[in-house]
TrEMBL record:
<keyword id="KW-1133">Transmembrane helix</keyword>
<feature type="transmembrane region" description="Helical">
    <location>
        <begin position="65"/>
        <end position="88"/>
    </location>
</feature>
<protein>
    <recommendedName>
        <fullName>SURF1-like protein</fullName>
    </recommendedName>
</protein>
<feature type="region of interest" description="Disordered">
    <location>
        <begin position="96"/>
        <end position="122"/>
    </location>
</feature>
<keyword id="KW-0472">Membrane</keyword>
<feature type="compositionally biased region" description="Basic and acidic residues">
    <location>
        <begin position="110"/>
        <end position="122"/>
    </location>
</feature>
<keyword id="KW-0812">Transmembrane</keyword>
């Protein structure tokens, strides 16, 4: 085991009603809690008396992240395809309008083009 020194320059603080420390410092924790602690620290089992509080282990399961990632992948593929379809449909309609305009010598006005594309009002 290597000998390492933790920084001891930050004071404890209170946040959301809980006193907290930045690092494990037995004298600092002893001063905050009023308990007589040694200079060293050990990890206690859950059933062992003398613990200041049991901190649960973080969840290590994968969760829903794979399906969420697949949804974004599907969206990333479908979005450019949808954009391409709408560009293609718009170009097709413009070509159709242009072809009918050259067949009729009179260019259609805006209401004729909208009626051709979306139908006449009922």
């Amino acid at each position: 085991m290597g000998n390492f020194a933790e920084p001891r320059h930050k004071e404890p603080f209170t946040d959301a009603g809980y006193e907290q420390v930045y690092f494990i410092d037995a004298p600092q924790v002893a001063a905050m809690t009023g308990l007589a602690l040694e200079e060293v620290y050990l990890q206690l089992d859950v059933a062992q008396p003398g613990g200041l509080g049991v901190i649960p282990l973080p969840q290590l399961e994968a969760g829903p992240y794979l399906s969420y990632g697949l949804q974004w992948l599907a969206f990333g593929i479908m979005a450019p395809l949808g954009l391409g379809y709408f560009v293609w449909a718009e170009l097709r309609e413009r070509r159709k309008t242009q072809a009918t305009a050259t067949d009729d010598q009179t260019p259609p006005d805006a209401s004729d083009r909208l009626a051709e594309r979306y139908g006449r009002p009922r």
